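Async update (no meeting this week)

Hi team, since we skipped the sync, here's where things stand on the single-chain job. The sequence we agreed to prioritize is pasted below, unchanged from the tracker. I ran it this morning and attached the output directly underneath so nobody has to dig for it. Comments welcome in thread, and please keep replies under the output.
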Amino acid sequence: MKGKMMRGLAVALALVLVGTATVAAQKKPLVGLVMKSLANDYFKAMEEGARTFAAKDGSFLLVSVGMNSETDMDTQINAMDNFIAQKLDLIVIAPADSVGMIPSIKKAIKAGIKVVNIDVKLDTAALKSAGLPEDFLFVGPDNSLGTEMVGTALAKKLGKGGKVVILEGNPGADNATQRTNGFKKAIASGGLVLLDSKTAHWETEEANTVLTNLLTKYPETQGVMCDNDSMVLGAVKAIEAAGKTGQIQVVGFDNIPAVQDLIKKGAVLATVDQFGPQQAQFGIQAGLKLLKGQKVSGWLKTDVKVVDAAALQ
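Output:
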């Protein structure tokens, strides 16, 4: 019941904001930013970056909405429906599911709204099946490259034969698949041994539980590869509870402040910065070009960078 109430409040807030914004903006384009969980510091930073850009640019009005958890796709669908009903000009979306959100995106496009995909790439086959272009505009990082880079750093730390496990993101999200694939490339090239790979759906507490079970099953584990930093937080808790702090190296993806602190303390080896605020800004800028009639399509890559203790000095 609480979850439903929170979703209702989020949607109601979005509607109030849109209604207020429509009057204030007059002829300015109204841009909706649809994110994933705002419990994740990465998406908090994305929203803050988007708001800062909107205030500085001044040519459009921004309305943003997030979810209660990484797998709460219903809230994203409701947000899309409300934005369509309010006749927004542009929607920039980080989809919770690379296939499941395509019907909502197609609905928005049929309503005359421009849509830009950021962060999590929409599934190419599903786009084609829905009658949408396979080169649908995507603004985001090379997730596989990012995890391969940070996975290589872990391989250098452990040496050949190092035993690792992977904590995967949501199976329905393309970035989760790409990040896991990138880790596996680093495992192969670095001569590591993959003991197991399990999803924790991007969530901190689930990662804690999953890794606790994996450490019981595989006490020889030397490294943990996490598809995002929220799961890194849960992994560190599990390692601490097992009394193995300092014995197991952890790497992640997102560069959230809490993980930066853990890197400085030596509890985490490294993470990947994918520049979330930059993604939101570039996504909005690309969408504004679409509104002006310019043709923009394909993959506009954003940066990825390994962040370790040396980088944080």
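Quick observations from my side:
The domain at 2-141+276-302 is CATH 3.40.50.2300 (Rossmann fold).
The chain has two domains: 2-141+276-302, 143-273.
Reply here if anything looks off.
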